[in-house]
Amino acid sequence: MTTTAPTRSSRIARWRTVRAQRAEHLRRMGRLTTRTRAALMSLGTAMVAAGGWAVFKTKVEAGPTALITIGALLVVLGAMGRQIASMNLKDGSMTMQDVKDEVNQADSPEQVVDAIVNAPGPVQSQLQRDEDITMMSEAAYEKSVAGVLAEYFGDAVQRDVPIGSTRADIVVTLDGKRAVVETRLGNPSKAMPPEVLRRLVRPDYLNDDDVHAIVIVSASEPGLYFLGEARERAVQAGKNFTFASWAGSVHNRSLKQAIEDQLRG
User: Regarding beta strands 177-184 and 211-218, do their DSSP bridges make them parallel or antiparallel, or are they unpaired?
Assistant: First the structure.
């Protein structure tokens, strides 16, 4: 008995089915598609700009104010990526339980990260106090970053690599040079605490002759002073150092470039 490879039409049919299932999943979770979010943010920005210009050109206040208000709402809606079923001036329509449900029903690590990153700031702060959600989101973040790097660098990417007395989240090796990649999703609505950044630039990495560069990847950016402090520690140990912001596929190319700059620059 012989088998034949799937035809092109059958592959297209499967792709369409998967896409439809993903769209339905987004709809059930109240999420907006990437294209819709981009359109809302573009329209909202244009309305805010038009309203701001009209404030200085007309004597009528109601029209420009309405433009600015509606435009700002569209920008917020696009940034959140969720449909608004109701408005609550106290804490918004999304609750911690909404996000927890979305995380628990996610089909991939990327969806877990997306749910956390797009949650309102107050909800993100609550999530940080939930140990189970924190562990799940950090593991999903590390796996997502590793997946992105593997798409670009293939077998040069390794996870959970022992270095000294610790284990690096990810190691990328190019042309005989090794970059240690430490990931930390953290709280995307707040700056990375300085003690976390100091802890990620581990002495084991600084003292290992085989480590050429240290790359910190997070959706929570550290302050410039503490970033400079971390870079100085690395430079004194003869290592390259950089911070790369990653909060989804929009940052994939810059993440790849950050690794290449440290190992091929």
Answer: parallel
